[in-house]
């Protein structure tokens, strides 16, 4: 009998503990959309990306023209001249691919620039969320904008505006 009472008491206390936990959610997309520095950083990244893309397109057009010229003149060239032209085209292709990796690769210039411009803003947002979670004793704060499905959310548990206020945006 004591075991049953002890088990029941333990079960009731666990249920009470789970009901005492607080949950909330934020929408980081909404938060970032309301931070002007984020928009400025995105615009700067877009400009850089377009510049890199334009440079690569120009290089690719040169490469295409070199290949077309080679195709048109190949019947007139000696084997030695053909080999030299092919070598030039291959080296130009390597240069193109290297530049492409340098700009858009996983550790490329655009990635590094994004890290320098966007990551500090995201870190500020996550730090503000963490502070709010600690101050409000929230057990879990979900991000509504991520891939997680939330079928229903009560707006009273949305802390997005609180995060913006903590960061100094919006009243």
UniProtKB/TrEMBL annotation:
Give GO terms for biological process.
protein stabilization
Record GO cellular component, one term: cytosol
Q: Which InterPro entries match?
A: Chaperone_Skp, Skp_dom_sf
* Top-level taxon of the source organism: Bacteria
In its UniProt entry, what is this protein called? Answer: Membrane protein
Q: Which UniProt keywords apply?
A: Coiled coil, Signal
The root-end lineage is: Bacteria, Pseudomonadati, Bacteroidota, Bacteroidia, Marinilabiliales
Read off the SUPFAM superfamilies from this record: OmpH-like
- Asked if the keyword Signal belongs to this entry, the reply reads yes
Mind telling me which Pfam families this protein's record contains? OmpH
Q: What organism is recorded for this protein?
A: Prolixibacter bellariivorans
Say which family it is in: Belongs to the Skp family.
- Any signal peptide, and if so, which residues? none
């Amino acid at each position: 009998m004591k075991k049953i009472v002890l088990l029941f008491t333990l079960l009731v206390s666990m249920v009470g503990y789970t009901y005492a936990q607080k949950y909330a959610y934020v929408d980081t997309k909404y938060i970032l959309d309301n931070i002007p520095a984020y928009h400025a950083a995105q615009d700067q990244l877009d400009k850089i990306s377009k510049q890199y893309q334009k440079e690569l397109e120009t290089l690719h057009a040169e490469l295409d023209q070199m290949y077309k010229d080679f195709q048109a003149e190949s019947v007139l060239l000696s084997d030695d001249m053909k080999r030299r032209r092919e070598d030039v085209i291959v080296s130009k292709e390597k240069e193109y691919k290297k530049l492409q990796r340098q700009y858009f690769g996983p550790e490329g210039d655009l990635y590094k620039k994004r890290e320098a411009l966007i990551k500090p803003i995201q870190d500020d947002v996550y730090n503000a969320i963490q502070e709010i979670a600690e101050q409000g004793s929230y057990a879990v704060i979900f991000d509504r904008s991520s891939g997680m499905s939330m079928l229903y959310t009560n707006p009273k548990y949305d802390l997005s505006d609180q995060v913006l206020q903590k960061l100094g945006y919006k009243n």
